[in-house]
Amino acid sequence: MALPVVIIGSGNIGTDLMYKVLRNNALDLVGVAGVDPSSDGLARARDLGIATSDHGIGAFLDEQPGAAVAFDASSAHAHAENAPLLAARNVRCIDLTPAALGPAVVPEVNLDEHLDSADTNLVTCGAQATVPVVAALSRVGRVRYAEVVSTVASRSAGQGTRSNIDEFTTATASSLETIGGASEGKAIIILNPADPPIMMRNTVYAEIDGMSAEQAVGSVRDAVSRVAAYVPGYRLTAEPLVANDLLTAFIEVEGAGDYLPPYAGNLDIMTSAAIRVAERFAKGSAR
Fold it and tell me: What's the pTM value of the predicted model, to 2 decimals?
């Protein structure tokens, strides 16, 4: 039986997520809850015959109980208010905001450790794109230092991203260490105003010990293949380079174009990661 889920937030991310949920046989979308009655996301949901509320998740669950998992695609401030409402109703949450109330999860790396978590945080798009590479290197040797530079199209960065740049970079850097296994991590995010907009681009620099160039490159390729299994537009743009114990990898993320434009890979990787987590929750609930 499909896992009943609800989406909180009817903006760009919530709407893109809606289309991904609808085509996933493991998930059953029981509703979309927002706060803007004129939002395009709520209008699209209503047109598809999906139950909606423009009074937030509390009002929705009062009228439409039954969701087992909620995707929170609202904001960090809103998630702080939503989390206790969900917990009181025993609804698990997959948090796509920077609220970081629950454990940080990058599905390819550490999802198995947090399958019982009531509130799973997906960190940042930069973490989803780069931590798997650093973690793969850490499994075959030591990563003394990891630095990542994520460049995204300015048009794909909403107000929430712009107002939380410091929090995003700090969270990404921390995840390189706590999830990726690097002894020290640093993250940089760049909003590129190019027209036409560019795809999300990520450069990973890693100072490595205890592994051959062949091992390092092989581990990066394996990590990219595993992430691409749930983010089809995730790919290396060139062969990873290794010289003097420094590995450099170049990764591009193209969005699926479900609702967001293909250049918004930074948002697509978040919604794709959320679906991956929900699929695992669904698999567990079916046992």
Answer: 0.96
